[in-house]
């Protein structure tokens, strides 16, 4: 999926995410991207995750697995949600904003992964390539491909994801879980040296 977005589009998305983050934390409405600034890639329906870090430590991460909004709007909304609605953290405070970095992950559509046994599932996983979704009944949990960097062993990756799902760590060995995989196109402010905010000519305030 690499290369689907141009550098300019990635920077645009990071700037929109920054505005969404700041607006949420300050209790304001974010600006709306002008129609003539919306490329076909930014207008397509897409699922994203926005990850916030502060001094290299996770500060919030929220996203979705069902594409319901244009890419540019989804990124902007997720940034605000990551700041205020990640239950693992207290809401981001205004004084923290200068120290926070933003990473955006644009997902492909999750696809079912068929497997015959726990060992077959291990063989079919692609560390550092695939994000993984586990489903058990009405419950669902996912790890982005970036999680492989901290949990590189497939067995532990699945066990930790099961815990996130609210199931025992060995559930993936005991129950035939529904499994989906996806890939991401990821980019961040530090990587692209994206300046904070956005060119005022690229957005208009909401009414």
Question: How would you briefly describe this protein structure?
Answer:
Helices cover 31% and strands 26% of the residues. It is α+β, with helices and mostly antiparallel strands. It is globular, with a radius of gyration of 18 Å.
Fill in the keyword field for this structure.
single chain, 207 residues, alpha+beta, Glycoprotein, Type 4 Pilin, Dna Ligase, domain 1, five-stranded antiparallel β-sheet, four-stranded antiparallel β-sheet, 7 helices, 11 strands, globular, disordered C terminus
Describe what this molecule looks like in 3D.
The chain has 207 residues and is an alpha+beta fold. It folds into 2 domains: 7-108 and 184-197, Hypothetical protein ph0010, domain 1 (Glycoprotein, Type 4 Pilin, 2-Layer Sandwich); 111-182, Dna Ligase, domain 1, CATH 3.30.1490. The protein is 31% helix and 26% strand. The chain contains 7 helices and 11 strands. The protein has helices at 7-26, 40-43, 71-84, 118-124, 154-165, 171-174, 189-192, and strands spanning 32-33, 45-54, 57-63, 69-70, 100-107, 111-112, 131-136, 139-143, 178-182, 184-188, 203-204. The strands form 3 sheets. Strands 2, 3, 4, 5 and 10 form a 5-stranded antiparallel β-sheet that branches. A 4-stranded antiparallel β-sheet has the order 6-9-7-8, covered by helices on one side. A hairpin with a 2-residue loop joins strand 7 and strand 8. Residues 198-207 have low confidence and may be disordered.
């Amino acid at each position: 999926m690499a290369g689907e977005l141009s550098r300019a589009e990635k920077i645009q998305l990071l700037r929109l995410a920054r505005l969404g983050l700041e607006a949420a934390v300050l209790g304001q409405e974010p600006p709306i991207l002008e129609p003539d600034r919306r490329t076909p890639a930014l207008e397509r329906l897409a699922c994203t995750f926005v990850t916030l870090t502060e001094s290299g430590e996770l500060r919030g991460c929220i996203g979705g697995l069902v594409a319901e909004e244009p890419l540019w709007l989804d990124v902007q909304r997720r940034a605000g949600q990551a700041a205020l609605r990640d239950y693992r953290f207290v809401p981001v405070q205004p004084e923290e904003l200068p120290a926070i970095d933003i990473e955006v992950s644009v997902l492909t559509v999750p696809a079912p992964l068929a497997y015959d046994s726990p060992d077959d599932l291990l063989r079919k996983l692609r560390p550092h390539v695939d994000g993984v979704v586990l489903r058990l009944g009405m419950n669902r949990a996912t790890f982005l491909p970036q999680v492989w960097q901290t949990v590189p062993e497939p067995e532990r990756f699945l066990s930790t994801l099961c815990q996130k799902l609210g199931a025992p760590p060995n559930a993936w060995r005991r129950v035939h879980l529904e499994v989906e995989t996806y890939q991401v196109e990821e980019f961040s402010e530090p990587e692209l040296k994206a300046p904070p905010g956005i060119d005022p000519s690229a957005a208009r305030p909401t009414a």
